[in-house]
Amino acid sequence: MSTTTPPSATTRTALDRATCEALDASDPLGSFRDRFVLPEGVIYLDGNSLGALPRHTPAHVQRVITEEWGTGLIRSWNDAGWFAKPRTVGDRIAPLIGAAEGEVVLGDSTSASLFQAVVAAVRMRPGRRVIVAERGNFPTDLYMLEAVQELLGGGEPLERRLIADDGPTLDDVLDDHVAVVVLTQVDYRTGRLHDLAEVTRRVQAAGALVVWDLCHSAGALPIDLNAAWADFAVGCTYKYLNGGPGSPSFLWAASRHHAAARPALTGWHGHARPFDFTVDYAPAPGIERFRVGTPQLLSVAGLEASLDIWDDVDLELLREKSLRLTELFLSLVDARLAERWGIVSVTPRESSRRGSQVSLRHDDGYAVMQALIERGVIGDFRAPDLIRFGFTPLYTSYADVWDAVDVLHDVLETEVWREPRFARRGTVT
Amino acid sequence: MSTTTPPSATTRTALDRATCEALDASDPLGSFRDRFVLPEGVIYLDGNSLGALPRHTPAHVQRVITEEWGTGLIRSWNDAGWFAKPRTVGDRIAPLIGAAEGEVVLGDSTSASLFQAVVAAVRMRPGRRVIVAERGNFPTDLYMLEAVQELLGGGEPLERRLIADDGPTLDDVLDDHVAVVVLTQVDYRTGRLHDLAEVTRRVQAAGALVVWDLCHSAGALPIDLNAAWADFAVGCTYKYLNGGPGSPSFLWAASRHHAAARPALTGWHGHARPFDFTVDYAPAPGIERFRVGTPQLLSVAGLEASLDIWDDVDLELLREKSLRLTELFLSLVDARLAERWGIVSVTPRESSRRGSQVSLRHDDGYAVMQALIERGVIGDFRAPDLIRFGFTPLYTSYADVWDAVDVLHDVLETEVWREPRFARRGTVT
């Protein structure tokens, strides 16, 4: 990765690399970068898919393994607070999403947590038999709704209505048959950001409940679920929250719903008295009723370490830097790539409608991204034609943005992406 | 922990500690003990609840964190084989349970895997509306059946019939309404072992499918699911398999059922083409259709390390030692404790009906177990009155058994368990 301004950086924007370096020098979040391990020669713009490794995570997980497991053994269920982890770690996520203590609990995968939330919500609107979702949702949300339809549709079928940013709109499909609306706050492909409070209000005005998927917004921007009077939310912790590969999902339910929400998966960790070993299920009184089985504690340990960093983050500063990073990227793309190669962003230009990522359209996006990755700029590809760049304010610098555009310019200029080794094949994550 | 014969070891059995030491010296599995970390001063007889830490696990997990996550970042989904882990690690579990390659996949918790298996099985017997389970099952199995009843019972209710070792029996309840029978091979309290092949045959003779819960048998004894022509099985990996706290569950489905089995939870990792990001769900062709969301890879790493040990284990030798350990324990209890304190085992004496644990009944079992733990003998308590001892042939020695009975003798003799600090309170794991 070039660290000085390379020859191709002759741009038509007023910006130059020195300006970016100056922005980094005065960045109030600049010191967070040192708290992460970033491999040499890599500009990592895929923290929206898998967050980078916090520097102290290895030691923390090691301690959990050797001390809590190795020495504490079974005693750690009580002594190290293992049994309570899904709740106590949930309480540490709460401030990041505008939740109160006792409203957030860890789950297994986001898919499973979404299932828990949607089934509970549908059951709270008996007689209403429609679920609304977005065609552009990350597919697992749609797939899990098929599960909900199949499982809850035995008596009277559940209908799924799909909306999209280019229509049909929410207003087109909302009526008094709608039980639940499932929405992703930030679209995983375009980066489009919903107005959480405004959309929640419209859903609830129709008498429905809203389930928010925060996978691409938790840790990317401030979220205030309680201020929005939202109903349910789920999210993942391995993207912006840097909890580690596959770290556990979380589920939020507004406390006003706890007593009425019947969990779909009635496992023993969600029981009111799990160690009475009774024959019949009785849900725990609060958010813990959404627990299922034994939490995967090594993965929980990874998440706990990353939350040590989040304890120190000012989310308003985070959002400010996030928007500056994406704005800088969009400006540089416009100035250096748009006209010459017809590169178009599918990400909203209005900052109030943008998450912390930018996606560009390119007919050979897969090959272009492979060529970028070979040069150390790691983003990802989303079928059929999007190259996606995530900007994680805790460890992405303004100079990274400059250099990434520079490398992209070079990849397009040299047409290196046309080389056969970059052709698409096999599994793509 | 005493390492020489203590004064209280005046017994009426022919055995003495020297005999136990001799058994250890000639134990063909003796060398495995060095591959585990066992804390000083502890006799660990709770490996049936949480297995001990393999010595090389910390380094393995560390490598996954620093190299695969820290350096590989998102690239490790392909380069380190992350995406395939639930299947490739499942293939390493397969030989332990008599499964073929491609028949085992990792899940989240056992509860969730059981849900997946039971829903799939019930759907394969349309028209039959009864699920049979054991009253003595670990409760989460029963609780999850309530979830199945609630979710699949919308059209026509599903009935749950409970059997027990003291009746009603399987034959009492089997008829042509029964869709699925859910059985735990080794009872978590009594250690009673079902004859897997014989019971499977009886269930299938009634036209039903069987779902086996192997939580207390996988890694405790040889299992041959395919020889028994079983249908589905689930199990946990953090007990005898030593995968670490909350390490992922596994699900086995006979390959003859793969094409017909519709998963309950239709997440994107179980999709036929997950990276096509299509709107509609289509199940993967094989066992991977039972996957749900992103696997918790730090916990998977712990499991992988423990399977390195299992690769080297002869399961027939394991079973032989397991039975010798439990037989020794039962003999010593009979000889030294039974008559004087009325201590009774609830575990079958016939070795063919016994898993790898022994449970003793004591009215003040909770306090007795707390007193034992204080003296370094770690078993556990199961309400209302059982003290439970698990014997893990890879790291439990014959001398451990001698010493444990010796400490139990001492706890009963001195009546130390009557001290108020051992009284039951709060959460008990």
UniProtKB/TrEMBL annotation, chains A, B:
Q: What is its EC number?
A: 3.7.1.3
Give residues where N6-(pyridoxal phosphate)lysine occurs.
K239
Reaction catalysed by this enzyme: 3-hydroxy-L-kynurenine + H2O = 3-hydroxyanthranilate + L-alanine + H(+); L-kynurenine + H2O = anthranilate + L-alanine + H(+)
Q: Which domain of life is it from?
A: Bacteria
Give a Pfam family name: KYNU_C
Required co-factors: pyridoxal 5'-phosphate
- The family this protein is said to belong to: Belongs to the kynureninase family.
Quaternary arrangement and interactors, per the entry? Homodimer.
What is the protein's name according to its record?
Kynureninase
Upper taxonomic lineage: Bacteria, Bacillati, Actinomycetota, Actinomycetes, Micrococcales
